[in-house]
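Side project, low priority. Logging it here so it doesn't get lost.
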Amino acid sequence: MMNKAGAVLILVEVAVLVLGVMLAWVLSVLGCDVGNPFAEDSVRWLFSSWSSMVADYGLACAIFVLTSVACVSESGMVGMLKKGGRASVYAASVLLCGIVFLLCPLAMKHNPLLGITGELLPSPWLTGVPFVASCWLIVSSLLFAVASGKVKGLLSVPEFLSLGLRRFGLWIVAYMLGDFAFNILRHCIE
């Protein structure tokens, strides 16, 4: 079901992109105040901005968060939290340590992770939280998977770490295409 929804989303994004570009072109030919997507400056902008339109902060966040979700679910940490016992104490303590680790920098005096004005929004801490939290979850779920025998041997570690890309690859492509279409259409309107 999830793959079908992702495939439909990608088709809708492609249709919106094609129709939006064609509509912008027709409107610019008719003299409306809309950028021509096939004009020289638009093509130059497209080629020079391609990578920044597709590979941005949102994509990096999505990849890290989806990888951590897949690793945590595959490691069995969530199931152990529900069952109780020694493994659940380990899983809960790892999660609690992660939360404390993320919140400790906020209590520091003259914190370099706060914004220039000392505020939390915007700040380097807030920008880095998705990555630090995801890395913490990935490493702890990898350790849990090794301890529980789900990851056997060094060669199975890369396979474990690439679960997020394999499970959610379609959604990552949908995000990239949606971001690309948004930027192209925004360029035509501005």
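Brief comment: DSSP finds eight helices and no strands in the chain.
Revisit when time allows.
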